[in-house]
Amino acid sequence: MEETVTDIEVRYVETDQMGIVHHSNYVVWCELGRTHLIKKLGFTYKELEEAGVISPVTNIDLHYKIPVRYGDQIKLHTWIEKYDGVRVMYGYSIINEEGLRCAEGTSTHVCVDQKSFRPLSIRKHLPAWHEAYEQHKK
To answer: Catalytic residue at 16?
Structure first.
């Protein structure tokens, strides 16, 4: 299983009036981790889009456990949780400097034709991605 670890320094703009990171920023961080993982596997979203394929989120599920605050240094762990040839589910875990899990979750994605938005089989249309996902899923 391939996993990336992305270091994130929490910025003031990411916090709410209570001084805690606003929940919407976790989704942005997940995208950052997912992009890093895909790059580590040898691919980019830019190449995917140039091939006329996009990968929308079909589901996101995040669980918040310990607040993250401005100035905190966190580590975002990202991996492929599940893959079935059509859908890919990425897993995420956000760990603070004390080693405590602050949040965890998953996001599920499919690939679709950029013009028609019709679903595409990753197995069939993106064989190199398919092979990498098969090799590195949990």
So the answer is: yes
